[in-house]
Amino acid sequence: MPEVRTVLELENICKTFPAVKALNNVSMSVKSGEVRGLVGENGAGKSTLIKIITGAYTKDSGSMLFEGKDIGRNSPLISKGLGIYAVYQDVMVTPDLTVAENFFLGHQPRIGPFINWKKMYRESEKFLDEIGLEINIHKSIKELSIAESEMIAICKALWQKPKLVIFDEPTAVLTRSETKILFKIIEDLKKRGTAIIYISHNLEEVFEVCDTVTVLKDGATVGTYTTEELGNVDKLIPLMVGRSIEEMYHKTATKTGQELLKVENLTGKKFENISFNVKSGEVVGLFGLVGAGRTEIARAIFGVDHFVEGKIVVKGSEAAIKKPKDALNNGIGYLPEDRRKQGIFLQQDIDFNLNIINFDKAMRGGIINYGKAHAQARDYVEKLSIKIGSIYQPISQLSGGNQQKVIIARWLCKNPDVLIFDEPTVGIDVGTKSEIYRLFGDILNSGKGIILISSYLPELMGVSDRIYVISNGKMAAEVQKKDFSEEYLLTLAMKNLVSKEKIKEAV
Predict the structure, then answer these.
(1) Which pTM does this prediction carry?
(2) In 306-332, which positions are buried (b, 16+ CB within 10 angstroms) versus exposed (e)?
(3) CATH superfamily membership of 243-331+416-507
């Protein structure tokens, strides 16, 4: 084992943006071979701290020591030269180059003036084989799935032989089998003496992979603890948000009313004979393993994807839904799984993102009354306590949780009868999650219904009234609240998987 030494030491780091004290005397140190969890709500200061470590931001005051040397002035180039490597939730790889070319980018092996392609591909393939990742090294990154691209970005970190690796929400798009490979990579990095900072809103993961945890709240350090002394998530959440885990999934009792939506024998490319219903005042969960067809069902109901058989009934009448506009006209809303690519307009401001389907509410004589539209946006920003500087601020500058709340505000303003939430809390801190669950109560109390798709069973069981389990594109069962258990739901989810290999890949 390499000698244990302090790799990174931060002392009294401060950073202020206009009207916001992002970091207030934050101190933290990380040793070689240590996995340090960094947790806190959105806006706690995690991203700002990481950008100071990687040189993207300049600290206002405080000191940063790397391997005992004071780094007075930092930049992305300087931090890379020090051996600091960051893997962000937004995949940082070059899409038009192959997997092998991404690994060797900037230092291609050569024979004289020519690139040694054989060596490049041979070494890349050997490297992925050692890790246990089956990805074609000849494929360009743009041909890969989001999860595969993320794995390549992670593998690049190991390839660079870094001294400090920062993982920012690395498993947000990964399957369970890919997550296991990531944890193996982290274990290999630890054995090499690499220091690791691990940021995740999945707190169970933090206990699975981290040795220690630093908690940030409102830009300040709450404390640093070993995962052993904390013991479990129940002890960590109050340090982050000041409320218990039981309060997080609190759901106000609501009265179930009329049937709002019924799906009968719906069949599409990745699902068949799907039937279920949603009534006013209830949350209906859809659960299944990765690739089960949950998202495809939601997209078909909303008119994004076509279905070949079956029907969709809205308030007792069959609805012809062939495109999203049809779904909107029938009172159906949909928050997509990938909010950055499918839910928001990154380069546009908050006002535009919130009003994009609601400008009709601010029209007079066919002309948009922009004053009314702006007031409408401000009203919903205030209702949902969205943390912004201005409604004219680009949405890309908001945290993931606040971006998600803008999309929810968009739909609350539209006021559909049925809202489909597809993985609404992925990559969102526990405080914002709790706020979203409370919003569910407001939606239900207004006589609406919710379809919730989530891979996180504690969440699904905590807020759903009924859960429909999808297994390999088919309906496995409808489960009532009194029968909820993780073991039972997972067993049902595997019902139509025909081999152990498929089960292993799915989970």
Answers:
(1) 0.63
(2) ebeebebbbeeeebebeebeebbebbb
(3) P-loop containing nucleotide triphosphate hydrolases (3.40.50.300)
